Structure formats: structure tokens, C-alpha cells
């Protein structure tokens, strides 16, 4: 009888673990068996064997399964323990759970549950007195500004028009656009995560950074597209997405861009549209988690939240 109970318990625990990772199945399928061993089955890589033990470049370390930003290079320090060590995590990114033996505290990605390693406190190694001991194989590294194009005369434009997946989808189809990055702008919180923004604690808007070649496409063409792929008159969000993170706004780099936007808004006003789009000065742009990038290219399909309506002649 006891054996049956134990068996049932085992089944339910296994099912629960698999269930937790269900939304990430496509990402998990791509992992190597060693990566699965560490990230899913909570294994540990050999000391000094990982690729991020000694790295010092500026950037962000992300979860290898779901892409959530977990650690900043500025919190990384050399602990000589053989694994990448951080004395802090990005707020809310890491979950701590005591091991079954009660001796150590396991750290997992708060977004998807993937195993990172363990956290130790009271070792006196840094002023924060904390060491997140993380497996390199659990992480990916994104170097700061590594994505910016090679061509130096490329420019960047910033638009917020509701769910960034849809805005990114349409902007990427414009000739002369080199790259579109989904992220956040306009709020007061540094390095926000998607789930911080969702909770309305940050003041950020879902914003896309459009990297374009001004010799091929003008800022005005991009701005016209922006006004045609979302409803600039909606005041409480965009389409079915209601909330202040989905408000319509253009973040301008300079007075010239502001002038172009105001001109287009005037044209729309004359056509009877009561434009609610805010024209704001550019502030720091924060890239969203990797799993938000190129959503429709990766997943297929077309946006539920955006469609193009011709508004300019
Ligand atoms: Zn994750």
C-alpha cells in the first residue's frame, strides 16, 4: 500500500514539474541533454567549466529557457568559486526555494522556473554579502549595444502603439528598417521586466525601437506607418489591450521629429480624428525579454492587436 502511495506521489510530482514548463516546451526541445540536465533536472556543471566564469563585458545575463533578464554584469564579481557569481539579481527575476535537505537555497528563474543554482549569504565576499552561484549553462549573455548595426549613420525612432508585438511586426516590413526591438520607455523604473510593466508600477509604455537607414526611408514615412497601424484616437490602451502601458505615444529625439509628428497629427485632426497620441521627449529605452522579440516571426500568424488602415494620401 505504501509503495502505491509513493508511486502516485512520484507521478504527481513529475507531472507538476512538466506542467510548470509546458509553455516553454519549444524552447526546452532545443536544449542539449546537458542543458536539460542542469536547467530542468537541477544538475550542476563542473566548477571552472562554464563559459561565463570570468566574463566581464557589460550587458545582461538572461534565462536560457525563457529569455527573462536575470542578472546585470554590474552585479557580477569574481568569487573564485568556479561559477559565475552575482551579489544581486534583477528585482523579481529570481525565486529562492530552500532545498529539501534544508541546507542550501535553490535559485530558479521566477518567470519559467528553470534551475539556475544556489544563493549563499553571510560569506562576506561583497558589501551585499550575497553570492548567487549560477551555472553558466543556465544563462545567455547579451552584450550592451551589441545589436546596433555596423553602419554608423543608422538612426533610431521610438513608437508606442499598444502591444509591441504588433507594432514590431509592421515596422519590420518597411524597406530601410534594419531592426525593430520591443522594449519599454517613458517610466521611472530602470531595467523593468515585462511583469513589472504589466503591474502598472513602472510608468513605462510598451515601445519599439526602430533602427533605420535614413538614406532609404524617412522618419516621416515611419511615423505615417505608425499612425496607420494603430488607432491613435484610443485613450485607454490599444485594441483589446487596456492599460496605461498600451497608450499611444511617440518619443522624439529632437525638435525636427517633433515638428513632423505634430504636422501628421494636424493632418489627422483635419480628417476628423481626435488624436490622443502623446508626443514626448525620448528617455532611456529598455529592451524587453528575449521571448518578446520577433514574436510573429518566431510564432507565425499575424497580429491580433494591429492592422493597417490607410490614413494618409
Ligand atoms: Zn526563465
Please give a handful of descriptors for the protein shown.
6-stranded mixed beta sheet, 8 helices, 313 residues, 24% helix, alpha+beta, single chain, Metal Binding Protein, Guanine Nucleotide Exchange Factor, Chain A, disordered N terminus, 2 domains, Peptide Methionine Sulfoxide Reductase, Chain A, 6-stranded antiparallel beta sheet, binds zinc ion
Write the layout of secondary structure elements.
Elements: H1 2-20, H2 25-29, H3 33-39, E1 59-63, E2 69-72, E3 76-77, E4 85-86, E5 94-98, E6 105-109, E7 115-121, E8 130-134, E9 139-143, E10 155-161, H4 164-171, E11 177-185, H5 194-198, E12 205-212, H6 219-229, E13 237-238, E14 241-242, E15 248-252, H7 255-270, E16 278-281, E17 286-287, H8 295-299
Parallel strand pairs: 15-16
Antiparallel strand pairs: 1-2, 1-9, 3-4, 4-8, 5-6, 6-7, 7-8, 10-12, 10-15, 11-12, 11-17, 13-14
Helix pairs in contact: 4-6, 6-7
This protein binds zinc ion (ZN).
Quick recap of the structure?
By secondary structure, this protein is an alpha+beta fold. The protein has helices at residues 2-20, 25-29, 33-39, 164-171, 194-198, 219-229, 255-270, 295-299; strands at residues 59-63, 69-72, 76-77, 85-86, 94-98, 105-109, 115-121, 130-134, 139-143, 155-161, 177-185, 205-212, 237-238, 241-242, 248-252, 278-281, 286-287.
Amino acid at each position: 500500500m505504501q509503495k502505491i502511495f509513493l508511486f502516485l506521489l512520484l507521478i504527481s510530482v513529475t507531472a507538476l514539474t512538466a506542467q510548470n514548463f509546458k509553455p516553454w516546451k519549444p524552447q526546452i526541445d532545443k536544449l542539449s541533454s546537458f542543458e536539460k540536465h542542469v536547467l530542468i533536472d537541477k544538475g550542476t556543471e563542473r566548477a571552472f567549466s562554464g563559459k561565463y566564469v570570468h566574463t566581464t563585458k557589460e550587458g545582461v545575463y538572461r534565462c536560457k529557457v525563457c529569455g527573462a533578464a536575470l542578472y546585470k554584469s554590474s552585479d557580477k564579481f569574481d568569487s573564485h568559486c568556479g561559477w559565475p557569481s552575482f551579489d544581486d539579481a534583477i528585482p523579481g527575476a529570481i525565486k529562492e526555494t530552500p532545498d529539501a535537505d534544508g541546507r542550501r537555497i535553490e535559485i530558479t528563474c521566477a518567470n519559467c522556473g528553470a534551475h539556475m543554482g544556489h544563493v549563499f549569504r553571510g560569506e562576506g565576499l561583497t558589501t551585499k554579502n550575497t553570492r548567487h552561484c549560477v551555472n553558466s549553462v543556465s544563462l545567455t549573455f547579451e552584450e550592451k549595444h551589441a545589436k546596433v548595426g555596423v553602419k554608423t549613420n543608422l538612426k533610431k525612432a521610438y513608437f508606442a502603439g499598444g502591444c509591441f508585438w504588433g507594432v514590431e511586426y509592421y515596422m519590420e516590413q518597411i524597406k530601410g528598417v534594419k531592426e525593430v526591438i520591443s522594449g519599454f520607455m517613458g517610466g521611472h523604473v530602470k531595467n523593468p521586466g515585462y511583469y513589472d510593466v504589466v503591474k502598472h508600477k513602472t510608468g513605462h509604455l510598451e515601445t519599439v525601437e526602430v533602427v533605420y537607414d535614413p538614406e532609404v526611408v524617412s522618419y516621416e514615412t515611419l511615423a505615417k506607418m505608425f499612425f496607420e497601424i494603430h488607432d491613435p484616437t484610443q485613450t485607454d490602451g490599444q485594441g483589446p489591450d487596456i492599460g496605461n502601458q498600451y497608450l499611444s505615444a511617440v518619443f522624439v529625439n529632437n525638435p525636427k521629429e517633433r515638428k513632423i509628428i505634430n504636422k501628421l497629427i494636424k493632418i489627422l485632426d483635419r480628417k476628423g480624428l481626435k488624436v490622443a497620441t502623446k508626443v514626448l521627449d525620448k528617455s532611456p529605452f529598455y529592451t524587453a525579454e528575449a521571448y518578446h522579440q520577433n514574436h510573429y516571426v518566431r510564432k507565425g500568424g499575424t497580429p491580433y492587436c494591429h492592422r493597417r488602415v490607410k490614413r494618409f494620401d
